[in-house]
Amino acid sequence: MKKRNRRRRTKKRRANRIAVGILTVVFLLLCLFLYLCLTVWKGNPSEEGIEYLKNGQYEEAIEQFGQAVEEEINVADAYRGIGLACWEQEDYEGARDAFQKALEQKTEQPFTGTIYNLLGICEMKLNNPASAKDYFQLGIGLKGNSAELDREMKYNLIVAFEQTGDWESAKAKLAEHGIDCRGKHAVQLARADYAKYDFLIGMDSANIRNMYRMLGSDPENKVFKLLTFAGSDRDISDPWYTGDFDAAYRDVLEGCRALLASLLPKL
Hints:
Elements: H1 2-42, H2 45-54, H3 58-70, H4 75-88, H5 92-104, H6 113-125, H7 129-139, H8 147-163, H9 167-176, H10 193-196, E1 200-202, H11 205-215, E2 223-225, H12 239-242, H13 245-263
């Protein structure tokens, strides 16, 4: 009898331990389920920031990316998102500060030259060409850069050299692109030039206004905007404002080809 009672108590204790184990597992699974539900319901602030950025809601994007920084979620990407939102609002100081903080973060994936190019352009906008030059030099040739990006940064570097008065470096960079500037220099348009030339060509509407002011009048219809020859009233894209030297090059090339095509039948 005693042995049967002992066996019963042993079986009961074993059943109790199994029941406790099952309840523990169920409880843990419920906790995990609730955590996942709360996480999904709350959302990822970085992802929400990206959506706001795409939709042009820049203040909302900054708020979401700032929340991601506080919660330490993809901090480098969040700072980069803040930088882009500030950039779109032409807050170049805020963009620069955010991009710098992005670079300070340790990430598994190294940054490409894009962030250095943006930092350099921010510094140019803030009249800090010496700092801009450093960023462009850091960005050129980084792994992951496209040929177009490297080319743009090289052009930007030339402008930075010019802005710092480093003409020799600017000439050297032009030479890398096969452009020899020896014997070439800019001169101020003068009223006497009207009688010397058949064409007086400006790059944009501001150029044309200034040319009319300098010349006094255009009785022989010699003043043109370059892209007029290509059948367009557009201005040449100004890389000083856009940072896009490729667009400026394409516009100038289009205008020059059209000008040449209009002159060839007359030669």
